[in-house]
Design a protein that fits this description.
Elements: H1 3-12, E1 22-25, H2 29-39, E2 47-50, H3 53-61, H4 69-72, E3 75-80, E4 84-85, E5 91-92, H5 99-108, E6 109-116, E7 130-134, H6 139-148, E8 152-155, E9 166-171, H7 178-186, E10 191-194, E11 196-197, E12 204-207, E13 210-211
Parallel strand pairs: 1-2, 1-3, 3-6, 6-12
Antiparallel strand pairs: 4-5, 5-11, 7-9, 7-10, 8-9, 12-13
The structure holds ribulose-5-phosphate.
Function: Catalyzes the reversible conversion of ribose-5-phosphate to ribulose 5-phosphate.
Organism: Dyella japonica
Protein name: Ribose-5-phosphate isomerase A
């Protein structure tokens, strides 16, 4: 993992921000560099839609207005990091437990610019345990369904998401069909969000300051 590449990626994403924009903002240490760079342009943008309480606090600290997605409507741009990224710009996300709001904003945005360091690039998704946000009472049910599918579910004990839910990290999956697995898991009652971004992958991936 390279903090320098994360900073480069966060700063490079600024070139996608247009005057007057409302920018969708993800969560994590790479996005933190983006927010710091966005602060320099704060008089040129209308505000941001935030994917987590963590990013909301950061945005407010640097003086960027945080807006409600219900009020803004669709966005032109979403900028977020990832835990893994394959050659088709399909992602694993949710290492920071913000996957649900991240997926909502990605879906609402015309362009998703993903910012990563080179350690996140993989041939096959799944070495990073797949985060799944679940309604608390469904934790065991979802765990059993994952075991049936050959995964090893590990409860992220002590973590409560911004939505009041829990996270299961699935180890041991080599994900050959990310869109198929995403669709399959989405049918299990109690799963709120699967941290696979395959049905709606990134549009642009910046690895450091380089477009993938
Ligand atoms: C949070 C995420 C993050 O984008 C992901 O965990 C990458 O974080 P970082 O930039 O700190 O490596 O999905 O839920």
């Amino acid at each position: 993992m390279s903090a320098n590449e994360k900073r480069q990626a966060g700063e490079a994403a600024i070139r996608y921000v247009e005057n007057g924009a409302i920018v969708g903002v993800g969560t994590g240490s790479t996005v933190a560099f983006f927010i710091d760079a966005l602060a320099d342009l704060k008089d040129r943008i209308e505000g941001a839609v935030s994917s987590s309480e963590q990013s909301t606090a950061h945005l407010k600290r640097v003086g960027i207005p945080v807006l409600d997605l219900n009020a803004t409507g669709a966005l032109n741009l979403y900028v977020d990091g990832a835990d893994e990224c394959d050659a088709h710009k399909r992602l694993i996300k949710g290492g920071g437990a913000a996957l649900t709001r991240e997926k909502i904003i990605a879906e609402a945005s015309a362009k998703f610019v993903c910012i990563i360091d080179s350690s996140k690039q993989v041939n096959l998704l799944g070495k990073f345990p797949l985060p799944i946000e679940v309604i608390p009472m469904a934790r065991s049910l979802v765990g059993r369904e994952i075991v049936k599918r050959g995964g090893n579910p590990v409860w992220r004990d002590g973590v409560v998401t911004d939505n009041g839910n829990w996270v299961i990290d699935v180890h041991g999956w080599q994900i050959a069909d990310p869109a198929g697995l995403e669709k399959d898991l989405n049918q299990i009652p109690g799963i709120v969000t699967v941290g696979l971004f395959a049905r709606r992958p990134a549009d642009v991936v910046l690895v450091g300051d380089r477009v993938m």
